[in-house]
């Protein structure tokens, strides 16, 4: 009787392990199928959209516009008003350290 119970449990454990392995295999195959499908889609998009000289000229024109825009921005960092604020706060702290109000 005890031997039959052990065999039954072993069979259940083997069945669970088998079911888990089958589920993992199905998941891997499904992932691979989705991956290959998206890869085919990406290849089709790449083949349909070839880079031309006109595209390159448009990109370089956009980069030139950005460079002009950035060239017009002030390039001092930190800003002078921030430095003035820091100096004022430092002076206030020094005054408080000396005991004045």
Order of helices and strands: HHH
Number of strands: 0
Q: What is the percent of helical residues?
A: over 70%
Low-confidence stretches: none
The backbone outline, from C-alpha atoms, is: flat
Supply the helix-strand structural class. Answer: mainly alpha
Ends apart, CA distance between termini: 94 Å
Mean pLDDT across residues: 85
Number of separate domains: 2
Can you tell me about this structure?
It is a single chain. The protein has helices spanning 2-48, 53-71, 80-97. The chain is built from 3 helices and no strands. With 101 residues, it is an all-alpha fold. It has 2 domains: 1-50; 52-101.
Structure summary:
The protein has 101 residues and is an all-alpha fold. The chain has three helices and no strands.
Sum up the structure in keywords.
101 residues; mainly alpha; flat
Topology:
Elements: H1 2-48, H2 53-71, H3 80-97
């Amino acid at each position: 009787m005890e031997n039959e119970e052990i065999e039954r449990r072993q069979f259940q454990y083997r069945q669970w392990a088998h079911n888990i392995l089958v589920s993992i295999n199905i998941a891997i195959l499904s992932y691979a199928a989705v991956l290959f499908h998206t890869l085919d889609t990406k290849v089709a998009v790449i083949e349909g959209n070839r880079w031309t000289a006109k595209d390159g000229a448009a990109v370089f024109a956009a980069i030139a516009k950005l460079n002009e825009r950035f060239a017009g921005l002030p390039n001092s960092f930190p800003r002078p008003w921030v430095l003035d604020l820091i100096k004022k706060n430092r002076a206030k702290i020094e005054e408080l350290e000396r005991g004045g109000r």
